[in-house]
């Protein structure tokens, strides 16, 4: 049936109405981020309006809080106190403060011990008996601009922009999946995904904008997936079941050639530890034997240690790594970084002399830290390994007779889902962000908020 001229206005109203609904659906939403990474136990905090004009809500009063205004909050005795713009300190009657205002504003947060960050959006501060709990409310797309560059790197934009786009989609999907079941998300990489506010914003923001609204969904149901990712798969992506115990058809184990021979220390690392030190880490005597029980990927499921007295202990691969992982330290090639490893045992009888028989893997160790500076070594000899305590603890003044263990590993992190270094390599080779996502995640589609798959 042909539409009459009179019906065109009605048709246009329908069309524009549908367009408005779709636009509204695709718009970013405001989210709440609990700031626990740097400010989880902050007793004293200063907040300054860096851009925009805000309002401070305090004890049922609303105070204008324009650019350059400052708020200091702390505690005196058992009560929270505050000071506005260098005025007198006053006791807070309630337990909550809120700084709200313009969408394009930003706030600088710092503590007396030197921790600082700048955040878009609003802040809420709740007194928790002995510290302040800070919550950052902001647009979800602005949140991602503070996630992508710290989970990857702004420097990757030059040759790996497609990898940053893949990271933006994965991070957005993770956010959407998590906020389906809870009201807030944290800024902690140990709990959720890393978020550092405006401090890290840069070239990676282009990847967030280029993929605005894009998420990964299940190929059948259209629901957001658990978009897992880690720094480096070591050449083989892990099955989610082997990491957290729950099967996931979107995060399955498979070879990852794109993560081979890339990533520096994250791609290949080595850790040396003496038999006594290895045993003492788990309440045993000097270790005589190490047996590895592995998954198909090559990652270690369990480590079985047997000491010189015949005592044995089985430890999960993850717990074993945690005993030597360099928490809070710079990643180096002589650090224990993940569960994808194998081990070599060298008895003392093999390590007291010139150490030319050791595999080439020892060539990457930082011998400058491990050598005993009081002795001279031939140019082509290795360190006297009988004196080594571990790669991280250095050497002992005297040798020990029980030998050493050398752990040779690949990859950094749990290995499930997308390998960030592998994604970067794929981008360098010319793959698109869609190619990257479909390689690392199974049975998925790329969709926007209105449900259109890709």
Average pLDDT taken over every residue: 86
What fraction, in percent, of the residue positions are helical?
10-25%
What coarse outline follows from CA principal-axis ratios? globular
Kindly provide the radius of gyration, computed on alpha-carbon positions and rounded to a whole number of angstroms: 27 Å
Can you characterise this structure?
The structure is a single chain. By secondary structure, the chain is α+β, with helices and mostly antiparallel strands. It folds into 3 domains: 30-140, no CATH class; 146-261 and 414-446, no CATH class; 269-409, no CATH class. It is built from 11 helices and 27 strands. It has helices at 8-26, 140-145, 148-151, 157-178, 205-210, 240-244, 275-280, 317-322, 367-370, 420-428, 433-440, and strands at residues 30-35, 45-51, 54-58, 61-65, 70-76, 79-84, 90-91, 96-101, 106-110, 116-120, 122-127, 132-139, 184-186, 215-218, 229-230, 236-237, 254-255, 269-274, 287-294, 300-307, 312-316, 341-346, 388-390, 394-395, 404-409, 418-419, 444-447. The strands form 8 sheets. The protein has a 7-stranded mixed sheet with strand order 4-3-8-11-12-1-13. A 6-stranded antiparallel sheet has the order 7-6-5-2-9-10, with no helix packed on it. A 3-stranded antiparallel sheet has the order 18-25-22. Helix 4 (157-178) packs across helix 10 (420-428). It is globular, with a radius of gyration of 27 Å. It starts with 7 loop residues before the first helix and ends in a 7-residue tail after the last strand. The model is unreliable at 1-26 and 352-383 (pLDDT under 50). It comes from Desulfosporosinus acidiphilus (strain DSM 22704 / JCM 16185 / SJ4). Residues 1-28 form the signal peptide. One of its GO terms (biological process) is sporulation resulting in formation of a cellular spore. InterPro entries: SpoIID/LytB, SpoIID/LytB_N. Residues 129-217 form the Sporulation stage II protein D amidase enhancer LytB N-terminal domain.
């Amino acid at each position: 049936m042909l539409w009459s001229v009179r019906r065109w206005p009605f048709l246009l109203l329908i069309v524009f109405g549908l367009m408005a609904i779709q636009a509204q659906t695709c718009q970013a939403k405001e989210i709440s981020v609990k700031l626990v990474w740097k400010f989880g136990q902050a007793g004293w905090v200063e907040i300054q309006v860096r851009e925009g004009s805000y309002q401070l809500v305090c004890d049922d009063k609303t105070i204008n809080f324009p650019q350059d205004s400052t708020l200091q909050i702390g505690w005196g005795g058992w009560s929270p106190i505050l000071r506005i713009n260098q005025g007198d300190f006053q006791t807070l009657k309630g337990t909550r403060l809120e700084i709200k205002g313009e969408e394009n504003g930003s706030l600088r947060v710092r503590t007396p011990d030197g921790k600082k960050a700048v955040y878009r959006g609003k802040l809420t501060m709740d007194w928790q008996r002995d510290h302040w709990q800070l919550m950052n409310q902001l647009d979800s797309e602005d949140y991602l601009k503070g996630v992508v560059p710290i989970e990857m790197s702004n420097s990757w934009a030059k040759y790996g922009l497609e990898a940053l786009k893949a990271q933006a989609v994965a991070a957005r999907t993770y956010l959407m999946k998590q906020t389906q079941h809870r009201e807030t998300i944290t800024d902690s990489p140990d709990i959720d995904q890393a978020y550092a506010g405006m401090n890290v914003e840069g070239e990676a923001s282009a990847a967030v904008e280029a993929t605005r609204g894009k998420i990964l969904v299940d190929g059948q149901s259209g629901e957001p997936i658990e978009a897992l990712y880690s720094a480096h798969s070591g050449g083989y992506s892990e099955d989610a079941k082997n990491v957290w115990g729950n099967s996931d058809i979107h995060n399955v184990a498979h070879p990852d050639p794109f993560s081979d021979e890339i990533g520096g220390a994250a791609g290949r690392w080595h850790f040396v530890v003496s038999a006594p030190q290895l045993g003492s880490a788990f309440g045993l005597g000097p270790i005589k034997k190490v047996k590895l029980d592995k998954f198909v990927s090559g990652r270690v499921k369990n480590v079985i240690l047997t000491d010189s007295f015949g005592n044995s202990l089985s430890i999960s691969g993850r717990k074993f790594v945690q005993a030597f992982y360099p928490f809070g330290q710079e990643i180096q090639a002589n650090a224990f970084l993940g569960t994808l490893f194998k081990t070599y045992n060298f008895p003392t009888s093999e390590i007291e002399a010139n150490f030319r028989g050791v595999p080439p893997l020892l060539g990457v160790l930082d011998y400058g830290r491990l050598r005993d500076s009081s002795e001279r070594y031939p140019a082509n000899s290795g360190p006297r390994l009988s004196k080594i305590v571990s790669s991280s603890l250095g050497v002992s003044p005297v040798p020990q007779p029980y030998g050493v263990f050398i752990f040779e590993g690949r990859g950094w992190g749990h290995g499930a889902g997308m390998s960030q270094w592998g994604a970067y390599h794929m981008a360098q080779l010319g793959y698109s962000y869609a190619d990257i996502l479909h390689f690392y995640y199974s049975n998925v589609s790329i969709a926007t908020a209105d449900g259109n798959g890709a």
